[in-house]
Amino acid sequence: MNLQQVDSIIFDLDGTLWDATDSYVASWNLALQQFGIEKTITRPDLESMMGWEEKAVFEKMFPHYSLDHRRQIAQLVSQNQDAYIPVHGGVLYENVREGLIDLSQKYRLLVVSNCPENTVRDFLSWSGLENYFIDYETHGRTRQSKAENIKAVVQRNNLQSPVYVGDTESDSKAAQLAHVPFVFVSYGFGKVENAAYSFNSFPELVKAFTTLPKAKLPN
């Protein structure tokens, strides 16, 4: 696809727009304490699973626990994140705030993430970027795959030529399944071999997209 045709950009969240791993670690460890589990979660633990769907994460972390117990722990983690992230947030990658504001002048911006239901909402509120995005979707709300959620936001917003920006192989596969071109950012948590479009920093991505001729946006 010719990037000059792009009218909208759908972003992954973790590893693409920010790093909130420390907030996630704190939320996880509080949940384990509340549940009476003598286990400590570390940054590497979560980084290795960043972008996974909830079921896969809890199967790996608690293989000997019942499905019901995993769901209870997941609920506690999600509740803790809902309380923790609006206060402590995360670390925005270089030039993300300024870059998104610039991109929003030319493209419709969206987020699709495999995070819990309220994490994107809390990210937008904490960062003050709510007004620059037209929509978002999460695995936590729909329980659908990332590919299906990408398809859903494309359809309900009548996106004509979107791209999906992410940092992992699973992001790339989801975009492919959704029939949306993938743009890889290499500063996040994963690697993607032979990506058609790749950027080493957010400023590099912003420069590339803001210097392209402007596509005609739908009314």
Give an overview in words.
This protein has 2 domains: 3-19 and 91-210, HAD superfamily/HAD-like (Rossmann fold), CATH 3.40.50.1000; 21-88, DNA polymerase, domain 1 (Orthogonal Bundle). The protein contains 10 helices and 8 strands. The chain has helices at 21-35, 43-47, 54-61, 67-88, 96-104, 119-127, 139-142, 146-156, 169-177, 202-210; strands at residues 8-11, 18-19, 91-92, 108-113, 135-138, 162-166, 182-185, 197-199. The strands form 2 sheets. Strands 5-4-1-6-7-8 form a 6-stranded parallel beta sheet, with helices on both faces. The radius of gyration is 17 Å and the shape is globular.
Write the layout of secondary structure elements.
Blueprint lengths: L7 E4 L6 E2 L1 H15 L7 H5 L6 H8 L5 H22 L2 E2 L3 H9 L3 E6 L5 H9 L7 E4 H4 L3 H11 L5 E5 L2 H9 L4 E4 L11 E3 L2 H9 L9
Parallel strand pairs: 1-4, 1-6, 4-5, 6-7, 7-8
Antiparallel strand pairs: 2-3
Helix pairs in contact: 1-4, 4-6, 5-10, 8-9
